[in-house]
Amino acid sequence: MTKRIVFTGHRQCTLESMAPAPMADTAVRVKTLISLISTGTELICFNRNFAPGTHWDNWIKYPFVPGYSLIGQVMQVGAKVQQFRVGDRVAARLGHVSEAVGDAAEFFPVPADMDPQAAAWFALAKIAGVGAHVAQYVLGDSVLVIGAGPIGQMSVRWANAAGATVIICVDPLSSRLAPAKAGGATAVVAGAIDRVEAEILAANGGRRPRVVIDSTGHAAVFSAALAMAADRGRVVLLGDTGFPGQQHLTKDVIIRGLTVVGAHDAHADVLSNAAGAGIFFNLAMSGRFNLSGLNTHTFRPDQCQQAYETIDAQREKTMGVLFDWTSIG
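and the corresponding C-alpha cells:
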C-alpha cells in the first residue's frame, strides 16, 4: 500500500494508507527516499494561519495533502518513457507520499552522486529563484534579504550566484543567521526589520540596498521593506502572507520611485519547475550553492504530528525538516 501524510483538520496530521496509483505508458513509478517540509507554507496550512476568503482559505480543504519537494528512485517506467530508467534518482513537486506515480514530464533527474537530503531543497530553491529573476540582479548589486528561513536562505544563495557584492540578511532569530552567512551573505543582522536600519546602512556603506527581498510571509514586514529600499530601488514580495489585507503601501513607493513586484511559485513563465531544478542541481554540484548545515531535523513519516508541532514550537531551532521514507520499508 502507498502511504501519504494528510492534514485531517486544524493541527491534525496522520499517515494514511491508500491503493497504489495505476501506471500509464508515459508514467513512472517512484519510491520516495526523502521529502522536505516547506516549513513556512506547511505551517500556515497546519495552523490555518490565514484570513477567511483568502486564496489560502480556498486552497486548504480537508483531507489536505501537504508537501511539494520529493526525492525518489524510479521503480517502474511506462512503455513510452525514454528519459528515465529503473534505479534513476528523480525529483518531483509532489506531496509527502511513500510512492508516486505520474507522467514522466513531472519528474526531474537528480545527479547520481548528490545527497538526497541536499537535493530535496530543489523546490524551495526554485521558488526563491522566481524572486531572483524578477529582482533583475546586476553584477555588483546590493541586496537585502528579510527573513532567514528556508526561502530566505535560498534567496541569499541566488543573490550570491548572481554576482551581488553586498548581501545583507536580517532575521529576529540569530540562530538562523549562520547558515545565511555560509550561503553568501556578506553581513547578517539579528533583529526586527523595523529596528535595524542603522545596521543595514552600515553594512552597505551608508546606503540603502537597491534590491529588497521580503521572504517572510509576515504582512507587517512589507512596509518596513519599502522603507529600506534605495531610491528607484526594487522590492520583491516573495513570502506569501495569509493576511494580504494587512499589507500596506507607504509613501516610499511614489516619493522615492520604488518598483514593487510579486514573485510566486506559480509563475512558470518566469521560471519553470524543470528549469529551476536543473539550475539548482548545477549550482549545488559545482559548489556555488552551499547547502551544508541547512538540514536540522529528520522524522519518520509516522511521526508527522510531532514534526509539525516541533516546527511550530521551535522555529529558532528548525530549518530543513525532512521525512525519511526509507524508515517505513
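(Above: one complete record from the training split.) The chain has eleven helices and 15 strands.
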